[in-house]
């Protein structure tokens, strides 16, 4: 059982009548009330002092108090699995929390605190009981209550349905992309394994023919030694350009054709890819000694080269599978602490891998990383969600063709991640609204308007950072600024 589930709430007694109507009027929440209404609030409310570190409200407990912050700094956290995720950190005087929906008539449903609240330093609050707050709202603002109830319940149901659908769509898209990426190296490894089995069988057959050809033991030993030299040379061979490879294949093919090597033109590309040249073939011919055994020796060494090349293909394919699985694990943050010191580049790279199928071949990805940046305190799984939302929007804005630039740099005491695209840009009148919930510029059915709202809350509320949009046609950038240290309490 976690600490937040067993920690006892120990608060100092609430002192009634300590705030006057005039003092209440200085709080933005009560500034428009009449004198009589302020007198009623002052008579029914009380003030409470809380020491630093104390748990004030616990998520899931019955919502019995409506609380207004008078001084100090508080944080709100939500429970996600086994982890506590900070959603808000504030010291703004007059902010309110607790039984904020006590006036909503949810028949048969008990209102509970939606988050836990902790005082980060000594704090003072003005407190109303949930019953008094509900009576006040219903009696004084009946029309507003009808509107708020409809709006709150409607948005709650809408957001629940859309969020669930969005999560399923995101999971489906990531799963499809990952399966697509895994299928390519897996299929390549399967094909290479089948071809390798044939080449090994052919190699055994040719070795038997060589042995049956009454080859002198010393000469056969020299040929085996030459085979090892050829394989080692192939491993160190420099890559050839397409033109160089074609010229080398022609030279090797002519050499084999002159010596009546069967299938010489089929073997030439194998020897060329292995980095062998005419001098190497002359060496093979000298060590075989007779033209009769040259054909078998060339094929035997050809099988050895192909075997090495196929094993390299299998190694590359399985390494790719391993890299994809590692990226998926890094992206999902399996078996990792929710909050840790991280290198932002790790999450960016894993997100790009996970979105590789969606990015496609038409988008050029440019990475401009400052690898000297220090680690930062963060919730990596949440930041991966931010990178996913922004990159996905960028790719859609470019309609699958353009340049995606991911850049990192330091700005004062912040690490900045810039994600830019070459799409048409966001008009100036819409830039200030992109972080609003349910606002989207996409066509109907293509977006929920929650991605950037969630990203903003993760960066600003959860990490004490900032996220800024800069846009003009052909150059749109989201700048995510994350502090290098844990935000201070003041």
From TrEMBL:
Keyword NAD part of the UniProt annotation: no
Transmembrane segments: none
Keywords, comma-separated and alphabetical: Kinase, Transferase, Two-component regulatory system
Example of a GO MF term: protein histidine kinase activity
Enzyme class (EC, first level): transferase
Domain Cyclic nucleotide-binding: 29-137
Catalysis performed (reactions): ATP + protein L-histidine = ADP + protein N-phospho-L-histidine
Swiss-Prot/TrEMBL GO biological process terms: phosphorelay signal transduction system
Positions of the Histidine kinase domain: 306-486
Source domain of life: Bacteria
InterPro entries xref list: cNMP-bd_dom (IPR000595), cNMP-bd_dom_sf (IPR018490), HATPase_C_sf (IPR036890), HATPase_dom (IPR003594), His_kinase_dom (IPR005467), RmlC-like_jellyroll (IPR014710), Sig_transdc_His_kin-like_C (IPR004358)
Enzyme Commission number: 2.7.13.3
Presence of the UniProt keyword Lipid metabolism in the record: no
Protein name (database record): histidine kinase
Protein's organism: Pseudosporangium ferrugineum
